[in-house]
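mind reviewing this fold:
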Amino acid sequence: MFDTASLTRKPSARIVLRLGFLVWYLRRIFINPRYQKMRDYPSSNSIISIGEVLWDLFPDGARFGGAPANFACHAALLGSQVTMLSAVGKDALGDGAMGILRALGVDVSLIQRLESVSTGTVGVDVDKSGKPSFVIHADAAWDRLRWMPEFEAVVADADAIYFGTLGQRGRESRKAITQTLQIAKKNSARRVLDVNLRAPFFDNALIRESVAMATVVKLSDDEFQKVFEACELRELSDPIETLRALRRKFDLELVAMTRGAEGAVVVTRNETIDQPGVPVNVCDTVGAGDAFTAALVVGLCSGASVRSVVANACRVASVVCGHAGAIPSSSILLKSDWSSLEK
């Protein structure tokens, strides 16, 4: 979505100007009456995304990212009221991240701005199949996210809370995420874990405790082995049976496993859905899982049938795979009219 020829920890004036232009451009698009009508979908659910906001440093430049931030943008584009809980630095990258989130309709009023640390960055390489690998830089602003009393009222009114494992690598941020989830549990909100494992920032205890805090779990087939081992499940010959065992052990509403081009399999209390993928010419797969999860959560909150929601989530993910970066410039095309889905 946003590329620069180079990026340093202290961005140049050129990068600052480009960030400013990007925010202006996004605001112009999303206040244009031509597009505004496309945003007015019948969705009144309130979603919170908590965790990392950062910039992915690709070989050809920097792109806005972080799984919770990507999720927040897609959920907002899909019609939900989304609040982001995170921390960024008081720097140009922090300004750019805040501007992008605002322009895409995400409430940033509770994002913390920190002087002592920089906005997070991640080195990204993409292989020939479009699959990314990551080098996550240490001691980022989002590691310092701290609980604030102002969070409580917003969390109490939320229909769903999204979180992951990477956002819990810092002691302060993990404490804030845990406290947020405890309030969400008290208020019977969906607690959606996107496992999103990033070595070396996880262990079996973190995975197991995160699953235990969730009501919905999304993982990829690459993460499948690590998750079932961490959750001390007996290995079964059929992966779907293992997913069912995971759901039963933690009394989950739903477990979703994405399988790249092969689509996704979803297990609920009453059904198992084996959803084929949607063919697409892959540019890269960065952010596809975040878009899938956003469509899944927004659809579940809408009351549509799980089967129709999963089919639409795979379609949304396929669109992201056809573009560079986690939030393609054509994200407006991802809009889904949840009223048209089968209830």
Notes: The mean pLDDT is 83. The two ends are 34 Å apart (CA to CA).
